[in-house]
Amino acid sequence: xxxEVVKQVKEADAAGAIxxxxxxxxxxxxxxxxxxxxxINEAKNPVVCVNTGHSASMTMVPFGVCPVRVxxxxxxxxxxxxxxxxxxxxxxxxxLKMTHLRNELKMLEExxxxxxxxxxxxxxxxxxxxxxxxxxxxxxxxxxxxVQIKAADFMVSSYEEVxxxxxxx
Length: 169
What we know:
Shape: globular
Number of helices: 7
Distance between the termini: 28 Å
Low-confidence stretches: none
Strand content: 15-25%
Radius of gyration: 17 Å
Mean pLDDT: 92
CATH topology: 2-enoyl-CoA Hydratase, Chain A, domain 1
């Protein structure tokens, strides 16, 4: 799905169109979020990202880098640290060397640093303060608060307002 979104962003940008991306997703994998965020950053035309429901996790990376971030009244955003997944091929006993666990933890810490910088790139809150805020919790922010803390630029009541906003950038 991320490849299709990137393709559509690039096609709309090449056509000179204003790009509107709607978000209502629980998240996904790092690679997908990074691909979409990269397409947003590369766009030459205006990009408006709209959270229409409940977006969380990796969705916050492309939403965070978006030049114009809009939340629909009643929507919410959820932020948290990245998850690590260990695939177990045998259902018996899981035995891991400390080295493997240290490497996994290091990778998650590095990913958390990257995500924090991208998500807060347009916030007044620093990446370090953001990481403290989400440490060990899911931080869910209603639309009104998202605008107050600058996680979003505008709150609208309807998608029609988004279209008006996009036309008047």
